[in-house]
Design brief:
CATH topology: Jelly Rolls
Radius of gyration: 20 Å
Strand order of the largest sheet: 1-2-10-4-8
Number of helices: 2
Strand content: over 45%
CATH architecture: Sandwich
Structural class: mainly beta
Largest sheet: 5 strands, antiparallel
Number of domains: 1
Distance between the termini: 65 Å
Length: about 170
C-alpha cells in the first residue's frame, strides 16, 4: 500500500509540474552589500529600449568602481541584432548608450545570438557630478535591452554587478 501511495504522489507531482505553463528558471540575489546577481529566462526584448531587469546594492561608498557584467541571449533566434546598456540610479554607465557600442548582429542560421558586455562607472565621479545621489545611497542598476530588424524576442539574461575598491 505504501508503494502505491508513493507512486500516486509521484504521478501527481509530475502532472502538476507539467501543467505549469511558462515555468521560469529565475534566480536573483539582490540587494547585496558589494555584489548582486540575477538570471532570468523568457525576458521580452522589444524593438525599443526597455528595462528588462533591475538589481541593487545596499549603498554606495567612496573610492569605489561600479562594474556590471551583462549577457543577453535571443532564445527565439529571430532578432537581426540585439543591444544592451546599464544605468545606475538613472545615470548611464560606460560605455554610454548614445554611441551604442554594445551591440551585436545576429545570424538566424545560428542558435542563440548572444551579447556579452562589461559596463563600469567611477562612484566618486558620479557623486561629484550628481551630489547626494550615490554615496551612502542605495544603488539601483537597471538593465535595458533592444532588438533590431523589427522583431521582438524572448531572451535569457545574466547580470552581475559589483562595487570594488579603486
Amino acid at each position: 500500500m505504501s508503494s502505491f501511495k508513493a507512486l500516486a504522489l509521484g504521478l501527481t507531482l509530475m502532472l502538476g509540474l507539467a501543467a505549469v505553463p511558462g515555468v521560469r528558471a529565475d534566480e536573483t540575489l539582490s540587494p547585496g552589500k558589494n555584489a548582486a546577481y540575477t538570471y532570468l529566462t523568457a525576458v521580452p526584448i522589444t524593438t525599443g529600449y526597455a528595462e528588462v531587469a533591475q538589481v541593487e546594492l545596499v549603498k554606495g561608498k567612496g573610492k569605489r568602481i561600479l562594474e556590471a557584467d551583462v549577457q543577453l541571449t535571443d532564445t527565439l533566434e529571430i532578432a537581426d541584432a540585439i543591444a544592451a546598456y546599464v544605468s545606475v540610479n538613472n545615470i548611464h554607465m560606460m560605455p554610454q548608450q548614445n554611441t551604442i557600442p554594445v551591440m551585436t548582429s545576429c545570424n538566424n542560421a545560428h542558435e542563440n545570438c548572444t551579447i556579452s558586455s562589461n559596463f563600469w562607472a567611477d562612484l566618486d565621479e558620479l557623486e561629484l557630478a550628481n551630489p547626494g545621489m550615490f554615496k551612502n545611497q542605495p544603488l539601483v542598476f537597471r538593465i535595458y535591452g533592444i532588438t533590431g530588424g523589427g522583431a521582438s524576442a524572448n531572451a535569457s539574461l545574466s547580470v552581475r554587478v559589483r562595487m570594488v575598491k579603486k
